[in-house]
């Protein structure tokens, strides 16, 4: 699953929206867009290099893709040269590259016709969901403790403790702190999952397929406790909450993206609105960030 927070809808400067409306004044055809997120304990990711298309041109990944870039990631003295994929703008890491490490600086350098784009990220420590519980809404007492992947693997989806009835209790995650900022996402895993409320697509102004993934705004979780609201649970069946401990670059992009404020997530900070995202990229725009992730799996049952 492509991470819902990397939705660089910045690429969506398509027919109805000009590049300048999202990013300010842009010299036509010159703005390079990079897209890549490193996940701790996973291989180096694929990277995308694209251009913002001229105003009025319908967006096409092939047209926006930059096929002739030199793409490298640096980790200390190591250099990882990326290779272009047949898909224009997509670049793949070397197979022998080690897994992404914690608390390590990675630097990105993209060279396109003498123009350089640079960015850097320092990966967070590993995040771990120490415990997931269901609380009584009135007393705040623990009704049950959910089984974890570490305990039973994919049997979390058949464990009695992880069968949750929609709107009953409060889902609460207890984290071992791994960073300063977090973001969570819920994924509906069933292909034939049923909407819990047929009005949900209209309420959210999104298609049913869009609602299969729902994300939170970034937050601090200073007490190490995260609660997932039932109003953000849209489908029955197997569900997966992912908790990301995110770096500064991811946090700044996620909290400031106008596209995400318009389209996705739930909640937010009162009065927050940004005319353009914060890009921690030199010589271009986009996201080069990192995160660590842990997951909680359960089944959502409709109310009787």
Explain how this protein is built.
The protein has 304 residues and is mostly beta strands. It has helices spanning 19-23, 61-64, 149-152, 200-204, 248-256, 258-263, and strands spanning 32-39, 47-51, 70-75, 78-81, 83-84, 90-92, 105-112, 115-122, 128-135, 142-145, 163-165, 170-176, 181-188, 213-215, 225-228, 237-246, 285-301. Strands 1, 2, 5, 6, 11, 13, 14, 16 and 17 form a nine-stranded mixed beta sheet that branches. Strands 4-3-7-8 form a four-stranded antiparallel beta sheet, with no helix packed on it. A hairpin with a 2-residue loop joins strand 3 (70-75) and strand 4 (78-81). The radius of gyration is 20 Å and the shape is globular.
């Amino acid at each position: 699953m492509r991470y819902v927070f990397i939705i660089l809808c910045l690429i969506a400067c398509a027919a109805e929206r000009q590049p300048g409306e999202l990013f300010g004044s842009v010299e036509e055809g010159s703005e390079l867009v990079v897209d890549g997120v490193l996940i701790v304990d996973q291989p180096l990711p694929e990277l995308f290099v694209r251009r913002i298309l001229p105003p009025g041109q319908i967006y096409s990944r092939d047209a926006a893709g930059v096929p002739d870039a030199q793409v490298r990631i640096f980790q200390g003295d190591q250099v990882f040269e990326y290779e272009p994929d047949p898909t224009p703008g997509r670049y793949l890491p070397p197979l022998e590259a080690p897994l992404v490490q914690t608390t390590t600086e990675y630097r990105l350098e993209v060279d396109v016709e003498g123009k350089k784009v640079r960015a850097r990220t320092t990966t967070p420590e590993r995040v771990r969901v120490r415990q997931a519980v269901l609380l009584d809404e009135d007393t705040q007492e623990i009704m049950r403790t959910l089984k974890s992947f570490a305990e039973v693997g994919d049997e979390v989806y058949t464990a009695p403790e992880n069968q949750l009835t929609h709107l009953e209790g409060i889902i609460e995650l207890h984290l071992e702190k791994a960073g300063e900022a977090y973001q969570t996402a819920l994924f509906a895993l069933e292909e034939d999952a049923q909407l819990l409320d047929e009005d949900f697509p209209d309420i959210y102004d999104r298609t049913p397929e869009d609602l299969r993934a729902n994300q939170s705004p970034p937050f601090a979780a200073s007490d190490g406790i995260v609660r997932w609201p039932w109003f953000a649970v849209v489908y029955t069946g197997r569900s997966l909450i992912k908790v990301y401990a995110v770096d500064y670059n991811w946090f700044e992009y996620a909290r400031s993206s106008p596209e995400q404020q318009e389209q996705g997530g739930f909640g937010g900070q009162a009065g927050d609105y940004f005319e353009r995202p914060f890009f921690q990229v030199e010589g271009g725009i986009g996201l080069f960030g990192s995160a660590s992730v842990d997951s909680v799996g359960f089944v959502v049952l409709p109310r009787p």
